[in-house]
Each structure stands twice: as structure tokens, then as C-alpha cells.
């Protein structure tokens, strides 16, 4: 059917789908760098830091080079289908955060489905309704006005409202029955007065008839609007007051006589009533031009002044100019005619007032020109008849979040109106309707063949210019094409692809922004209900709006948000992805974008994840392979056989995470997954790796098999986590997988594990990309709730101990006598005792005691009222409540802590009114029992009002009474109380110093870029008696130091003189094992262990001649450089004095430089030939030409050459 519609309201559309690659790469970081890392670096050692954006660019190159997206589709083509409909992105413009958010959601779910065993075709859903294309054509072809548009195409306009200063007028409409009484109306569009057919008032608002003293005229307007026209009551006299409905159906004199005939024909030019009239603007009397306003159209239609089938009263043409019906202003552009219209109204005495006002008016958001609101002939779908079925089908869909389905969308459906589907443009696909001149006969052509049969014309192009000339006879009429255009979704169904369509309908998943509740979601449901009587999709994720950090809409003009490209160049695409989906915006709420949130993802998730991988490869696997002389690798599906408690915990925790992720993604809840990922990373790095660090490095194992089991466990967990989160962070997981792949052996498991053709794998059977691998399924046999509970209580205990240490400024390296853990539940105490060895080590205490006896340690309960809240609420009863709480017995306080409510003096108190706290002694508060958190993780501390608050805990600083001054306390919301004995002890202080010294040595090693295997000598130069005591060979703590440092160490009271060769050798004989020689100084640094500062120097050490040729020169040099050379570079040195030669290796098998420069080469040659430092040598490139100094950068230029040397004893 054909009805008029309003052009700015007709923006619903149906999407066409063009084939194309989508969302294999959602958005790529634009990091520019001439150096790109390769993700195929295998087992090479990892750098200390990683440039994530640069690595992402390298991964993009890798995906493109290997056609990973096409390969993944080929891999899955025989699998069951998972259907995903993409929504309507624009074809022009750069993506903003809204696009990136929607793109991320629409990437994660299809990736997850693909890696869960489905075949997912991903196609672009171009929003090809013509407007973006036409706008780009306007710019390209320099189109400025209607004449240009007529030649090249029609500009379609969308409304963009802006607040501007506009002129308004107040005009009068004399009543037919009382010509001296006039209704006055307000308008900012004088040009619409030519089409006025009625006036409208609010039926229930109060209106007044007044006498204007200055003009001497009688007016009717809304009483609430008097102040907008008059400065004071002295300017008018109120003659009468009445409700608006009293004015209903009163007749008035038309402003112009262009359509005066409608007064008799349709009952026009009378007063109508409707509640849309407001008291905020105007006079409370609204003039009605039904074909230039939606409410005007609705009200006039409801009152019979016009009908849906009547001729349109719209004297404005397609160029915005008056038609011949408006004789006085014909041919004038309507906005230009405003001035002439106002002049005529003044002459006729109909102008009452004229001024300016800030008013919203629609502007084209692209061309920045004013729009007019007018009715055009439009074809509609009768949606109003489908409302009940629409609601039924909507209820069958799963929405995330579901409140959008039940609220916003369902309400929109209940008020659904007939849907305008046609468009008035040149570019686009015409509707396949041929009609007679009088519109009484309509033929909908269903196919090209049918059109050929009707017209005799065979076509292949369905654009307007190809169809407009085709006419054919039907009965006695010549049928012509409807000129309206609209793009319809099609896969050539039902002519072909019938099976593909039916298999993929309804869609398994769609996602778009909340604005599409009135757009794409709505059109999908209407079409699906009308055509198939079923919902168009099964699952839907609705995202909210991304705002600027100040809560305002993001504006390019205001520049109130960072450029997305810059964010990705700085932090990477994956960080932005994870930040967006871990925000309220995925729950259809608004997000205030903050760059610091993206940075936190990198800091709290990506870097710890990377460091876990780096620790595995460099500090665990490489030392293991060197120590055992065998390659480390595991099969991906193999589960470590381990009795180690922490191994079993991390394996259980990993499987619980996998189970949780599958559960949440089956319900399409993305926003719950990232917090668990962050928690998992924290548990893996800060608990498992930290507490197993020595075991993973081979320091605390009984045999190599236990070492290998630890490595197997960490490798297994990292691999499963990488596969599990590959849909969320495709770049980072690819980066990690490529570096983990050399430790994974897929041989013989291709079909069983991944179902991959051989061509997609390397020699080890490892697939080229992590995205070819399935997401892991949970092995529930590995899940132990008991172990996870034990670790949970262990973590709470350790974290509370750390809170205490932070509060009293006691570092973790300072050992303490005892930790007392108090809890009323014996089962909890038993769980904590089962983790005793870990708690003792992590809290660095000698003894762990668990008990329920608070009294023994002076711990009591006390109620603390919220004075600010209760003082004003309880008033005169407040003092009585205070006294009652003071006298409240422990049993009642414990009951309140458990239930969260209690009645005191007739008043019900909740957790906001009363807190239960621990006290030690009579006046010292320790900790709130009924906190809001469970106490499983801690965060940054913040003192406020005596309380030290953390993310999961709150504790109170205090000074204990004398009887219990040795204890510091903290507790959590689960009733766990920890006390630390902080009594000073000289023996414990020495152990603290030893641990601090080890820490400073390790820091200095790291600063010098040394690895644990590099042979060095540690020299401590200090006058501190305490440091010299603990580091002396006879100290009981030297074993603790050496167990970690694993290198010779000596303490000297003065700095060793590097220029005195004799002093070097004397020192070496004392501190080095037999057969070792002191090398050059690697690093010297001043470090501090308060209150002492001292010098810490690291020297290289080398073997004597017999061992050097076979061993030392083929090990990595202690002077580790960031430069990398070619593998196994070497140089031959001939000793002319003794007639011998040696081969010096310049770089190891990993391409790592072993000789820094020519001076370092000379020192090594001295060592090889057994010459002391007093012997002076020179290197020659020939019999007589000395070797010039060669820097680190050019050392490899000596590769394969022969040098000469001879002694020059002085």
C-alpha cells in the first residue's frame, strides 16, 4: 500500500550481504616500524620487554602471508554450520570506538564457534541504502545544489539536530463565531503556515482569554505560557479561564486561502485536542500543517481532516520550493520565503509578535545544510497487524542482556506502526512494483523471468536506470515501475541456495548497538515474522554506547577522545579489545572511554602473561635442556602426572576456568570472562610460578623427572590458556603460541587433536596458527574443589599477612617468629594447616599456629556504629542505641556478622549502620568482620580514618596494649584473623640482610643482562660489619646466599683495583675455585640495604687452557649483549710463540654474541694459552699488521678469519 511518510523517519533498512573476508582480523594496529618481529621465532630467547603493537603488525603479516583466514575456513568446511549475520556498518568513514566494540563482539563469538568445531562463514553486512555512496559521489563530482543533484543523483538526508538561534513569530487565528477573539500560535517555520489546516491544544491544560492592553486585542493561549509573551501581569487582563477541551472543534479563519475548500470538504480549520502539546514552548496553541510534521499528520488523520488514502496537501517540490498552489510565493525556496510571508502577515494584521529563540532544527550531518520535514509518497508494510506475533517471536530469542528484550525492544514492538520501506533516490535497487496511473492496480514482479514474460524484455542489471523504461499492459492499463528504491536482503532465495538459506536460518548469533532496537533488530524480526512466522536469530548481544571520558558524546570537532588508531599504535589492538569487552558497554550500558583502562590491560594481563612465558623458556626450559642434555617437549593433550600440591592446584584451577568460559560463552556473557582471565593470570604468575620458582628452575627438585614434571605442568597450562583465549586476544595468543610451539609435539596426533590436513603443520605436527586449534575442553577429572579451597584459604592468609607487613613497613624478606591464624571453623583451620609449608614460606615465618582461641591472644569483638547515618535517623534514641551496642555480648555480635541485621532498642540496624570489629585489648580496633568483600585478592592500600582499605580487605592500624604488643593483626570478611609476631630478633635480622643481599645481586645481574648460567664472580665492597658477617665463608647464612646466586662470592673492605694485575690474581686465588681465572669487570654499581650503601661488582671468570678449548669458549659469555649474531661464528688464532692455535667461538648456536670486542677476544686468548695478565699480547691480521680495535657491532666481521698473536713480555 502507498501512504505518505516523513523522510527523516523512514530510516529503517534491510541489509544486503556481499561476500568478503570479515573479522579474521577485526582491526589492525597501525604501529609503524621498519623492524618487524616475526611470530615464527620458535625457541629463540625472549627479550626482557616486548613492543606489543609492533608484534601485532608482524602477526598480521604472518596471517596474510599464510592465508590463515582462508585456511581456517577450508579446515572447517565439513563441520556443522554456525550462522552469523553481520549488521549494518557504513561503507564510508574510519572506524570509531562504537565500530570497534561491535566488531570485537562479532569477532569473538564466531572465532569461538569456529574453534569449538563449527564452520562459520563471515560476510560483510554492507549498509547499502545508497546514502553513503551518494554522499561520496557528491564530494567527488563537486555537487552543490538541486540542479547538480538532478544531473548526477539525489542527495538523501538524515537529520542532525543542533541548537541554533532561530527567529520565531506569534500569529493570530480569529474565531469564526467571534472574530474579535483570536487564538495565537507560535512557529519557527513561517513557510508552513501556507499549508495550515488546523490548530491543536492540550485538552487538560488551563487556557485563558486575555485582553492585551497595548494592542487592544483579545487573545486565547495557555495560561502557563503567559510569562513567555508578557513581562508582567499589568500588561494584560484575564477575562476567562478554562480547560483546553472547551476549545475543541471551534472554527477559525484560515491564514491563507490556498486550501480554503477543505473547510467544507474535510472539516479543516478548526481546533483539535491532543496531549502532545506541551507547556514548555510556544503559546500552547500549535498550528497544524499535517504534511510537514509527524504529530500534525497523526492528529489531523485521527480527526478526519486528512486520511491515509487522501491526496497529499504538500505544496513544496523535491527541491524545497513552493509549487503553483501557493500563488503568492510560487517558485521560492521555502526558507527564503519566510521573510516575504512575515511581511504579508504584518500587512494583514495577523502578526502578533516576532523575536528569536534557541531552538533545535534539523541539519544534514554531512553537508551542514538545513533540512525541511515533509511528507513523500511511500510504500508501507502493515506491521500493526503483526504486533502480537512480533512479541511472541521476540520472546523466543535469547538477548544479552535480557532486560533490553523485555523492556526497550518489547515496548517498541507494542507501539509498532506500519513500516515505510521505499526510498526516493536514484542509486539503489528499485522495488519490483509496477503500478497503474491511478494506483488502483499493483503487480509485484517476483523474478527476472516473470518480468520477461510480462514485458518481453530480458535484463540482468536491476538498477533503476535499466528498469525505468520497461512498461507493459495489464488489462487496460499501462503498468509503470515504482520509482522508490530500497535494498533487500537476498541470497537469490528461493531460486537457488534454498538449502543454504534454510540451514542458516534463523541465525545462531547477531550483535549490534542498542540503537538498532529501532533499526536492524526490528527489521529482521518484522521480515522474519511476516515471511516465516519465526524469530530471525537465536542469540543476540546488545552493546551500549562508548562516550568520551567526561560522559559526553564523542565529537571530532571537540576532540574529546583519543584517536583509536593512536590507541592501537600505543597499546595494541588486543588491549583495546579486552578493555572494551570488560566494561559495562557489553551489558548495553554506556562506557566512559579512558585510555588508562587500556594501559591497565597491558600492565595487568599481557605483560604478566608474557613474563610467565619468558620465565618458562629462559629460566626453566633452557637450563633444563643444558643440565640434562635433552630437548624438552610435550604432547599437547598429555596431562602431567604429578603429586605436587601446587601442580595439582593450577591444573584444577585451569580446568575450572575452561569450564567457566564454556558456560559463560554458551550464554553469550562476554563481560564475565575477562575478570576471571585477570584472576587466572594473577594466580598463575603471582602464586603458582612464584611459589614454584625454585622448582621450575631446577633448584628445589630431587631429580630431573620432577623438574620435567614442573615444566610440563606450566607448559600445559600456558598452552591451554593460549588456546582458550585465542578468540579474545588473537594477536597475543598467536605471539605466545609461535614461541611455545617448538615445545609442543603434535606428531601422530593431527587428526585426533585438530582434524587438520598435513599441509597446515610443520615437521613437529604443530599447526601453523593457534587459530587452527580447538579451544580446550575441560578435563573434569583434574578438578579438585578441595585443593582449590585450600589454596583460596592459603591466599587469604598470605594476603592478610602481607597487609600487616605493609602497614608496619616490614618487607617480606624480613623473617618473623610466628603467624597465628584464628578461625572458628575447624574445617577451615584444617585446610589452612594442609598448606602450612607454603604459608610459612610466603609469610617468611618460622612457625604457623591455627586456633579458634581469640581470648588467648587478647582478641575481642566490638560493635562500631555509623554515627553520621544513625545520628540524624535515630535522634533522641541514638544515645540509648550507643550504650546498648557497647554492652552487646560477643555472641550477638557474631550473629549480626553472619546475618547482617540486628534489632537494638527497637531499631533495625543493617551492615551500613553497624560494623563488627576485632580489638586487641580494651581500645584497639583490628578489622571489620562484616566487610563487603570475600577476601581473596588484595589491591593498593589507602588510609582513611584509621582504616587501611584494600580491594578485598580492610584493616585498622593500632597500638596494642603491653600484654599483646608483639602482635599485629588483620582479617577479612570470611572471619579469618591473622596475627604476626613482629618481635625483633638479631638472628632473624641477619637472615633478612642475607635475603636483601641476594635480591640486590639478582637485580644487578638483570641490569647487566646476564642469564643464570653465565659464570661470574660477585664482589661486595663494604665496611658494614653486618654485611661482611653474613657474607663471610664461615657464616651460617652463606649457604642460603650461594643456593640462590650459585656463583663464587667474596667480600672486600675496599674496591678492587682493576688496573693492578697482581691484586686481581691474589684476589682470584682466594675467592675462586681451583682452575678458574678472574676475567674482566662486567658491571659495578652502588646499591643500598638501609642503612648501608655499598658497591656491588660482577666479574667474568674463565677456565684454564685445558678446559677452555672444550668448554668455556663454547658457552655463552658472561657479558650478555642485546646484539645477536649469526650462529656458530668463529675465528682462528695462531700463537706464533709456541706454535699452537685455538678456535674462539664468537656466537653460540642461537646466534648470541659471546665476544664483546677485540679487547675481550684478547683476554680470552690469554686464558686459552695460559698466560698471566703480566704478559702483553697483540693480535695481528697478518705477519706484521696489527689488528685495529673492533667494536661489538663489527665483531662478526672476523668470522672465519685467521689471526696471529705473540707474547711481548715487559
From TrEMBL:
Domain Methionyl/Valyl/Leucyl/Isoleucyl-tRNA synthetase anticodon-binding: residue ranges: 647-819
PROSITE patterns tied to this protein: AA_TRNA_LIGASE_I
Keywords, comma-separated and alphabetical: Aminoacyl-tRNA synthetase, ATP-binding, Ligase, Nucleotide-binding, Protein biosynthesis
Swiss-Prot/TrEMBL catalytic activity: tRNA(Ile) + L-isoleucine + ATP = L-isoleucyl-tRNA(Ile) + AMP + diphosphate
Major enzyme class: ligase
Aminoacyl-tRNA synthetase class Ia domain sequence ranges: 59-591
InterPro entries named among the record's database cross-references: aa-tRNA-synth_I_CS (IPR001412), aa-tRNA-synth_Ia (IPR002300), Anticodon_Ile_ABEc (IPR033709), Ile-tRNA-ligase_type2 (IPR023586), M/V/L/I-tRNA-synth_anticd-bd (IPR013155), Rossmann-like_a/b/a_fold (IPR014729), tRNAsynth_Ia_anticodon-bd (IPR009080), Val/Leu/Ile-tRNA-synth_edit (IPR009008)
GO molecular function, one term: tRNA binding
Record carries keyword 4Fe-4S: no
Protein name: isoleucine--tRNA ligase
Amino acid at each position: 500500500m502507498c501512504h505518505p511518510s516523513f523522510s527523516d523517519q523512514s530510516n529503517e533498512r534491510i541489509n544486503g550481504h556481499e561476500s568478503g573476508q570479515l573479522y579474521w582480523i577485526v582491526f589492525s594496529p597501525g604501529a609503524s616500524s621498519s623492524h618487524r618481529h616475526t611470530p615464527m621465532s620458535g625457541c629463540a630467547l625472549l627479550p626482557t620487554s616486548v613492543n606489543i603493537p609492533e608484534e601485532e603488525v608482524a602477526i598480521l603479516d604472518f596471517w596474510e602471508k599464510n592465508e590463515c583466514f582462508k585456511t581456517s575456513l577450508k579446515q572447517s568446511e565439513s563441520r556443522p554450520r554456525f550462522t552469523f549475520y553481520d549488521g549494518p556498518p557504513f561503507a564510508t568513514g574510519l572506524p570509531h570506538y562504537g565500530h570497534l566494540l561491535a566488531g570485537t563482539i562479532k569477532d569473538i563469538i564466531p572465532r569461538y564457534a569456529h574453534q569449538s568445531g563449527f564452520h562459520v562463514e563471515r560476510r560483510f553486512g554492507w549498509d547499502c541504502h545508497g546514502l553513503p555512496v551518494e554522499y561520496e559521489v557528491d564530494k567527488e563530482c563537486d555537487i552543490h545544489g538541486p540542479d547538480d543533484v538532478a544531473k548526477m543523483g539525489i542527495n538523501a538526508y538524515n537529520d542532525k539536530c543542533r541548537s541554533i538561534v532561530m527567529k520565531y513569530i506569534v500569529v493570530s487565528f480569529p474565531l469564526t463565531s467571534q472574530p474579535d477573539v483570536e487564538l495565537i500560535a507560535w512557529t519557527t517555520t513561517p513557510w508552513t503556515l501556507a499549508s495550515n489546516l488546523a490548530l491543536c491544544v492540550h485538552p487538560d491544560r488551563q487556557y485563558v482569554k486575555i485582553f492585551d492592553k497595548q494592542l487592544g486585542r483579545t487573545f486565547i493561549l495557555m495560561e502557563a505560557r503567559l510569562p513567555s509573551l508578557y513581562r508582567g501581569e499589568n500588561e494584560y487582563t484575564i477575562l476567562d479561564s478554562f480547560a483546553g477541551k472547551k476549545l475543541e472543534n471551534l472554527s477559525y479563519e484560515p491564514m491563507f486561502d490556498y486550501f480554503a475548500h477543505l473547510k467544507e470538504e474535510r472539516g479543516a480549520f478548526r481546533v483539535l485536542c491532543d496531549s502532545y502539546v506541551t507547556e514548555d514552548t510556544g503559546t500552547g496553541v500549535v498550528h497544524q500543517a499535517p504534511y510537514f510534521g509527524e504529530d500534525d499528520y497523526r492528529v489531523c488523520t485521527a480527526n478526519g481532516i486528512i486520511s491515509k488514502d487522501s491526496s497529499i496537501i504538500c505544496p513544496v517540490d523535491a527541491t524545497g520550493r513552493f509549487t503553483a498552489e501557493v500563488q503568492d510565493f510560487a517558485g521560492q525556496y521555502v526558507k527564503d520565503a519566510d521573510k516575504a510571508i512575515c511581511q504579508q502577515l504584518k500587512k494583514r494584521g495577523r502578526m502578533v509578535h516576532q523575536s528569536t529563540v534557541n531552538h533545535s532544527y534539523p541539519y544534514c550531518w554531512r553537508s551542514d545544510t538545513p533540512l525541511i520535514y515533509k511528507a513523500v509518497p511511500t510504500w508501507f508494510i502493515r506491521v500493526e497487524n503483526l504486533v502480537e506475533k512480533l512479541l511472541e517471536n521476540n520472546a523466543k530469542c535469547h538477548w544479552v542482556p535480557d532486560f533490553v528484550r523485555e523492556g526497550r525492544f518489547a515496548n517498541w514492538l507494542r507501539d509498532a506502526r506500519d513500516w515505510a520501506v521505499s526510498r526516493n533516490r536514484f542509486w539503489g535497487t528499485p522495488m519490483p512494483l509496477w503500478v497503474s496511473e491511478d494506483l488502483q492496480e499493483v503487480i509485484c514482479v517476483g523474478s527476472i523471468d516473470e518480468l520477461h514474460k510480462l514485458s518481453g524484455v530480458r535484463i540482468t542489471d536491476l538498477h533503476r536506470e535499466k528498469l525505468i523504461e520497461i512498461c507493459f499492459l495489464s488489462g487496460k492499463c499501462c503498468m509503470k515501475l515504482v520509482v522508490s528504491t530500497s535494498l533487500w536482503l537476498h541470497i537469490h532465495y528461493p531460486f537457488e541456495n534454498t538449502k543454504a538459506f534454510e540451514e542458516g536460518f534463523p541465525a545462531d548469533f547477531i550483535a549490534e548497538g542498542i540503537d538498532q532496537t529501532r533499526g536492524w533488530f526490528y527489521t529482521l524480526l518484522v521480515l522474519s515474522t511476516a515471511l516465516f512466522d519465526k524469530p530471525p536469530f537465536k542469540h543476540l548481544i546488545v552493546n551500549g554506547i562508548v562516550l568520551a571520558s567526561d560522559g559526553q558524546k564523542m565529537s571530532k570537532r571537540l576532540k574529546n577522545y583519543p584517536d583509536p588508531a593512536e590507541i592501537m599504535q600505543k597499546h595494541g589492538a588486543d588491549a583495546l579489545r579486552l578493555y572494551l569487552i570488560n566494561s559495562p558497554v557489553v551489558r548495553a550500558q554506556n562506557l566512559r572511554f579512558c585510555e588508562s583502562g587500556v594501559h591497565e590491560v597491558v600492565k595487568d594481563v599481557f605483560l604478566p602473561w608474557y613474563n610467565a612465558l619468558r620465565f618458562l623458556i629462559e629460566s626453566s626450559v633452557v637450563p633444563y635442556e643444558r643440565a640434562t642434555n635433552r630437548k624438552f617437549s610435550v604432547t599437547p593433550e598429555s596431562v602431567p602426572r604429578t603429586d605436587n600440591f601446587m601442580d595439582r592446584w593450577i591444573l584444577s584451577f585451569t580446568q575450572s576456568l575452561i569450564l567457566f568460559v564454556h558456560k559463560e560463552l554458551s550464554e553469550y556473557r562476554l563481560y564475565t570472562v575477562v575478570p576471571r582471565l585477570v584472576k587466572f593470570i594473577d594466580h598463575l604468575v603471582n602464586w603458582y610460578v612464584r611459589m614454584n620458582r625454585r622448582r621450575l628452575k631446577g633448584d628445589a627438585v630431587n631429580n630431573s623427572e620432577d623438574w620435567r614434571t614442573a615444566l610440563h605442568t606450566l607448559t600445559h597450562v600456558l598452552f591451554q590458556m593460549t588456546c582458550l583465549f585465542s578468540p579474545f586476544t588473537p594477536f597475543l595468543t598467536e605471539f605466545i603460541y609461535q614461541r611455545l610451539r617448538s615445545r609442543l609435539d603434535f606428531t601422530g596426533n593431527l587428526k585426533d587433536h585438530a582434524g587438520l590436513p598435513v599441509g597446515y603443520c610443520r615437521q613437529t605436527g604443530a599447526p601453523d596458527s593457534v587459530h587452527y586449534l580447538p579451544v580446550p575442553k575441560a578435563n573434569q577429572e583434574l578438578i579438585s574443589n578441595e585443593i582449590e579451597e585450600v589454596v583460596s584459604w592459603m591466599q587469604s592468609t598470605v594476603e592478610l599477612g602481607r597487609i600487616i607487613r605493609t602497614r608496619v613497613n616490614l618487607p617480606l624478606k624480613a623473617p618473623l617468629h610466628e603467624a597465628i591464624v584464628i578461625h572458628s571453623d575447624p574445617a577451615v583451620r584444617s585446610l589452612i594447616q594442609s598448606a602450612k609449608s607454603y604459608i610459612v614460606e610466603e609469610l617468611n615465618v618460622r612457625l604457623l599456629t591455627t586456633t579458634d582461641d581469640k581470648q588467648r591472644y587478647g582478641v575481642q569483638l566490638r560493635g562500631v556504629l555509623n554515627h553520621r547515618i544513625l545520628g540524624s535517623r535515630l535522634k533522641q534514641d541514638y544515645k540509648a542505641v550507643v550504650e546498648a551496642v557497647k554492652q552487646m555480648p560477643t555472641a550477638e555480635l557474631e550473629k549480626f556478622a553472619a546475618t547482617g541485621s540486628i534489632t537494638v532498642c527497637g531499631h533495625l540496624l543493617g551492615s551500613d549502620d553497624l560494623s563488627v570489629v576485632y580489638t586487641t585489648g580494651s581500645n584497639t580496633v583490628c578489622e571489620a568482620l562484616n566487610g563487603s568483600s570475600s577476601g581473596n585478592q588484595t589491591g593498593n592500600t589507602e588510609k582513611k580514618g584509621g582504616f587501611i582499605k584494600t580491594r578485598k580487605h580492610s584493616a585498622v592500624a593500632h597500638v596494642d596494649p603491653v600484654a599483646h604488643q608483639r602482635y599485629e593483626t588483620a582479617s577479612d570478611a570470611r572471619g579469618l584473623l591473622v596475627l604476626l609476631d613482629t618481635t625483633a630478633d638479631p638472628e632473624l635480622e641477619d637472615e633478612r640482610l642475607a635475603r636483601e643481599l641476594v635480591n640486590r645481586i639478582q637485580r644487578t645481574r638483570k641490569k647487566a643482562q646476564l642469564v643464570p648460567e653465565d659464570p661470574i664472580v660477585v664482589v661486595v665492597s663494604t665496611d658494614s660489619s653486618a654485611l661482611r658477617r653474613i657474607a663471610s665463608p664461615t657464616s651460617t647464612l652463606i649457604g642460603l646466599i650461594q643456593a640462590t646466586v650459585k656463583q663464587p662470592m667474596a667480600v672486600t673492605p675496599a674496591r678492587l683495583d682493576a688496573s693492578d694485575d697482581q691484586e686481581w690474581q691474589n684476589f682470584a686465588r682466594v675467592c675462586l675455585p681451583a682452575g678458574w681465572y678472574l676475567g674482566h669487570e662486567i658491571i659495578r654499581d652502588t646499591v643500598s640495604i638501609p642503612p648501608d650503601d655499598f658497591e656491588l661488582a660482577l666479574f667474568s671468570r674463565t677456565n684454564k687452557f685445558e678446559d677452555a678449548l672444550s668448554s668455556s669458549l663454547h658457552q655463552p659469555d658472561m657479558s650478555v649483549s642485546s646484539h645477536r649474531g649469526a650462529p656458530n661464528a668463529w675465528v682462528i688464532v695462531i700463537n706464533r710463540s709456541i706454535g699452537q692455535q685455538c678456535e674462539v667461538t664468537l656466537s653460540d648456536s642461537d646466534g648470541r654474541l659471546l665476544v664483546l670486542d677485540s679487547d675481550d677476544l684478547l683476554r680470552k686468548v690469554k686464558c686459552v694459552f695460559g698466560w698471566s695478565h703480566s704478559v702483553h699480547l697483540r693480535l695481528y691480521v697478518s705477519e706484521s699488521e696489527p689488528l685495529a680495535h673492533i667494536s661489538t657491532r663489527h665483531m662478526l666481521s672476523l668470522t672465519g678469519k685467521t689471526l696471529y698473536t705473540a707474547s711481548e713480555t715487559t
